[in-house]
Amino acid sequence: MNLPTPSAPASHVDITATTVLRGDVIQVGGQACRVSDLVQLPQGAKQLHFETGESLTMNSRTRLRAVRVTGRR
């Protein structure tokens, strides 16, 4: 997995189901996982799909910490 490199400006951000973006890197079970796709679910939830093939569902109240490469959007 290609994680942010020292040459790519990155910042730590708090994310919710509303603010999560493709490319965000989230620590899950001690492993850094990059979001590759998002699926909108009922009641404000989102299912995150990672480059590793795993997925995670965030409900409307879930808050996570992520690394986001700045300047890419």
How would you describe this protein?
It contains no helices and six strands. The chain has strands spanning about 10-15, 25-30, 30-40, 45-50, 55-60, 65-70. The chain has a six-stranded antiparallel β-sheet, with no helix packed on it. Strand 3 and strand 4 (about 45-50) form a beta hairpin. It is globular. The two termini are about 20 Å apart. The mean pLDDT is about 90.
Per-chain topology:
Layout: E1 10-15, E2 25-28, E3 31-40, E4 46-50, E5 55-58, E6 64-69
Antiparallel strand pairs: 1-6, 2-3, 2-6, 3-4, 4-5
Strand order of the largest sheet: 1-6-2-3-4-5
For the biggest sheet, the summary is: 6 strands, antiparallel
Percent strand: over 45%
The structure class reads mainly beta
Query: Approximately how much helix is present in the residues?
Result: under 10%
Sketch the topology as an H/E string, one letter per element. Answer: EEEEEE
Helical element count? 0
Please compute the radius of gyration using only Cα atoms: 12 Å
- In quaternary terms, these chains amount to single chain
Q: What low-confidence regions span 5 or more consecutive residues with pLDDT below 50?
A: none
